[in-house]
Amino acid sequence: MEKLVYVIEAETARPGADLRAGLVEKAVPALRAAGAGQISVNVEDEHVAAGAAVKIARSDPSLRALVTFWLESADDRGPCEAALSPHGAGLAGYLVAESRPMVHHPPVGERAPGANLVTCINRLPGLSDDEFFDRWNIEHRQVALETQSTTAYVRNAVLRALTPGAPALDGIVEETFPIEALSSPHAWYDCDNEEEYQRRLARMMASVTAFLDLSCLVSTPMSEYFQG
Questions:
Q1: Which of 33, 147, 151, 170 has the smallest CB count inside 10 Å?
Q2: Rounded to whole angstroms, what are the CA distances from 43 to 56, 87, 119, 138, 165?
Q3: CB within 8 A of 113, min separation 6: which ones?
Q4: Half-sphere exposure (CA, 13 Å, Cβ side) for 146?
């Protein structure tokens, strides 16, 4: 089995509910018919509207949805891409290696609690593979879990791009937070005073700047709809 991840761009003006309906009601059945399993649909929709202030976008269309699933072989992805491509202005697919430092069990067929922050990352130029993965998987993991209110954490290390013209990425990260975190930095950083918030924020920024190229990072809070 192989895990495939598809980043979907859509115009800012497009309602998230419309994007969600197309993916859940039309794309998901077609993905199942094509052999996909463990399908998860993440969409920037009305339930995460408070997250507009923390979204990092560099274009319009921008990152608006993420669909992930497992397939016996990525070689057979053609029908899956055909099912997804009508639902956005841009589609970029990746074969990934998944790890879950913090696991949750979202309900099947319903909106999962909280908000899922989807972030596309690239390594700091000049870092070797060993340096990049040590800093991401070991050092940053500890910082993230100790400074934030994260309730689930999925790392998708990109093995290769699957669609023509897909932007070069090193990873796609999914982090689940309480919904209150979208509008409260203190809730995001799991603290109750400004002094501790600033301390945790500084520790987080020191960690990310040690291994990520922040000039090309994009990040969008989304609602997660696990389809099973």
A1: 33
A2: 15, 12, 13, 29, 22
A3: 106, 178, 179
A4: 12
DSSP string, 74-90: GGG-HHHHHHHGGGSSE
| pLDDT score recorded for residue 122 | 97
The C-alpha atoms of residue 189 and residue 90 are separated, in whole angstroms, by 33
Digit-coded pLDDT (tens) for 50-100: 999 999 999 899 999 999 999 999 999 999 999 999 999 999 999 999 999
Q: Is the peptide bond before 61 cis (omega within 30 degrees of 0)?
A: yes
The whole domain housing 28 covers: 2-226
pTM above 0.85, yes or no: yes
Assign residue 214 the CATH number of its domain. 3.30.70.100
